[in-house]
Amino acid sequence: MGGRIETVRRLASWGVRRLASYCGIDLAPGSNDRIVLEDVIFPYFIQRDEFSVILFVGCHWYTRRYNKTFKDKTYWTLEINPAHSKYGARRHIVDSVENLRAHFDEGELDVIFCNGVFGWGLNDKDPVEKAFHECFECLRDGGILVLGWNDIPERCPFPLEDVQALRRFRRLVFPPLSTAEYLTVGPGRHKYGFYVKSEG
Ligand SMILES: C[S@@+](CC[C@H](N)C(=O)[O-])C[C@H]1O[C@@H](n2cnc3c(N)ncnc32)[C@H](O)[C@@H]1O
Predict the structure, then answer these.
(1) Contact 120/58 with Cβ under 8 angstroms?
(2) Shortest-distance Cα residue to atom 18 of ligand 1
(3) Residue 30, pLDDT score
(4) Does the beta carbon of 88 lie inside 6 Å of ligand 1?
(5) Which of 33, 63, 65, 139 falls 20 to 30 Å from 21 in CA-CA distance?
(6) Are residues 87 and 36 in the same domain?
(7) Are residues 144 and 67 in the same domain?
(8) What are 55-78's pLDDT values in tens digits?
């Protein structure tokens, strides 16, 4: 019985989202991690002109609205699944984040958001090392990597402290949150980590 109710609830929720999307309205999930991302993290970068070339990795129906969020920036999206291209930016790339250097010059990007990708497809050690190595290469000096992940066994293949490529970055105490690693409220233990490329 409980299973049937859950199925009906999910179908109803899917139907409402499809209808809203058809009417040009994107309903975003209201979880705490999404609120922190959209209401605290994004505004910091939007308000600062020095962050002008932005890459958002991993696209889904609820990230399509970020095209508007970053309308005054040079906004790129990258996603491995071609079926998700419709959620991406006008400047969209279909590829794995491991291959970033094939698409961007060294130092071309000011900010990379890589949220919900580690542990959600980017799971194995070598691809993870390559992905964050390429992120480092493509960011300019002073550029920032915002990494979001779920610190739970099902979604955290190995500790991020083990990733050598991330050690090339300096941890950034992100001013609006006053910390370099922020744990949001919720069962998914969603965390945000802030990394700055600093070659000095
Ligand atoms: C949980 S969703 C996260 C979407 C979005 N980034 C967000 O903020 O919620 C994970 C997305 O990452 C994509 N993805 C998984 N591995 C990837 C990879 N190696 N490179 C690029 N995208 C990848 C998946 O196809 C999926 O659309």
Answers:
(1) yes
(2) 96
(3) 82
(4) no
(5) 33
(6) yes
(7) yes
(8) 999 999 999 999 999 999 999 999
